[in-house]
Specification:
The structure is a single chain. Among the domains are: 72 residues, Multidrug-efflux Transporter Regulator, Chain: A, Domain 2 (Orthogonal Bundle); 112 residues, Globin-like (Orthogonal Bundle), CATH 1.10.490. 70% of the residues lie in helices and 3% in strands. The protein is built from 13 helices and 3 strands. A 3-stranded antiparallel β-sheet has the order 1-3-2. A hairpin with a 5-residue loop joins β2 and β3. α3 crosses α5 and α9 packs across α12. The longest helix has 43 residues. 17% of the residues are buried. Keywords: DNA-binding. InterPro entries: DNA-bd_dom_put_sf, MerR-type_HTH_dom, MerR_fam, TipAS_dom. It holds the Pfam family MerR_1.
């Protein structure tokens, strides 16, 4: 800065992030004309710096130099009001952009959720998986399901798939036993831990699957076409046995020691 509130071409260029050549063009076009000092050197005032900020905004809006010149040379042009208006417009544009980004992030999670959903069910008939996905997309809570699955990382979904497949194989071997059987209930505890961890990883502010939560999950699961169909695809009658066993676990184990269980993950 050559003097208080005065800028050389180089100083204004650096301050506002525009090239010296751009300032020369604006000067030649009469859009932002430099002043001339007694020594012949060009300089700009703080008003010129503020006007340049306005010009930069106009250029970002893809306005031509001719259009900008017409605006800034209008006898009714008020720089302060113009800047305040542009600030409001930019804030509005920023808010709109932020909202669009949020929507895109949700869409990314949902698309990733579909992939993770397929990963978990890999090994079952593909036509059934496509059918379940279609059913979920038409369900009022389907978007939330896919968005939740989309929060699981690639490594975690692979680990979850391995863990789920191992659990399913063990459970299929005991579905002939009463739900109160010790082997069945041990697997129910394992199933509870897997479920609890998934909710902790995918639901914001989740406080743990308590007794009421699990009871409601059983109630909803029994009438959820997709959930029932998935279990039945592994073995006929598995859905009823699973939810009976999980409800037994809730009534005889979880209900009496909620505090110890809700933190398991």
């Amino acid at each position: 800065m050559a003097a208080k509130n005065l800028y050389t071409v180089g100083q204004l260029s650096k301050l506002m992030g525009v090239s010296v050549r751009t300032l020369h063009v604006y000067d030649q076009k009469g859009i932002l004309m430099a002043k001339r000092g007694g020594n012949g050197y060009r300089f700009y005032t703080s008003y010129d710096a503020a006007l340049l900020q306005q010009i930069i905004v106009y250029r970002q809006m893809d306005m031509s130099l001719q259009e900008i010149a017409t605006i800034v040379h209008d006898e009714n042009f008020d720089l302060l009001r113009a800047l305040e208006k542009q600030r409001r417009l930019l804030i509005e544009r920023r808010d709109n952009t932020d909202n669009m980004i949020k929507q895109i992030e949700v869409s990314i999670k949902m698309a990733k959720g579909e992939e993770n959903f397929e990963t978990i069910l890999a090994g079952l008939p593909q036509d059934k998986i496509e059918e379940w996905k279609a059913d979920l997309k038409n369900d009022e809570f389907g978007d939330a399901v896919f968005e939740a699955y989309g929060k699981i990382s690639e490594d975690d979904i692979k680990d979850l798939k391995t863990e789920a497949d191992d659990w399913t194989e063990k459970y299929l071997a005991v579905t002939h036993l009463p739900v109160s059987d010790e082997q069945v209930q041990k697997l129910m505890k394992d199933a509870y831990v897997i479920m609890n961890r998934m909710y902790y990883d995918t639901v914001d502010d989740f406080a743990g699957a308590n007794y009421e939560f699990v009871k409601l999950a059983c109630e909803n699961g029994r009438v959820d076409k997709v959930v029932v169909d998935i279990y039945e695809s592994y073995q006929k009658g598995m859905a009823k046995h699973y939810f009976d066993a999980l409800e037994y676990f809730a009534e005889h184990t979880l209900q009496h020691d909620e505090e110890a269980f809700v933190h398991l993950r």
